Amino acid sequence: MKLPACCRTLSAKCLLLACCAALFITEAVHADSAIVSPAPQRVAELRHLLREDCGACHGLTLNGGLGSPLTAAALAGKPGDSLVATLLDGRPGSAMPPWRPFMSEAEAQWLIRQLQQGVTP
């Protein structure tokens, strides 16, 4: 049985949509797994920075203070790349300073991922 032209077009569009969704999911998983943990000594340094320096404004338990909370719940749904940009470049006109002089972009990505997963210093 031959399908009408409108059904064939719809089937082709559904197949294309499914392929695009699979590619998007694969890329998202790959991008997340591409974040590499720093060396153990640097991890300790970054955790110290988070606890002492970030904690000074965001609260020692990261539940907020002068700065907003940095808990997994507070960061849920926020794009990681935007959070990394804020961490590295600060927020002009606010108390949030740029931390780019103190960490690489890869380290900032790792730190944001830790916070989004609820790992505390």
UniProtKB/TrEMBL annotation:
<keyword id="KW-0479">Metal-binding</keyword>
<keyword id="KW-0408">Iron</keyword>
<protein>
    <recommendedName>
        <fullName>Cytochrome c domain-containing protein</fullName>
    </recommendedName>
</protein>
<keyword id="KW-0349">Heme</keyword>
<keyword id="KW-0732">Signal</keyword>
<dbReference type="Pfam" id="PF13442">
    <property type="entry name" value="Cytochrome_CBB3"/>
</dbReference>
<dbReference type="InterPro" id="IPR009056">
    <property type="entry name" value="Cyt_c-like_dom"/>
</dbReference>
<dbReference type="InterPro" id="IPR036909">
    <property type="entry name" value="Cyt_c-like_dom_sf"/>
</dbReference>
<feature type="signal peptide">
    <location>
        <begin position="1"/>
        <end position="31"/>
    </location>
</feature>
<feature type="domain" description="Cytochrome c">
    <location>
        <begin position="41"/>
        <end position="119"/>
    </location>
</feature>
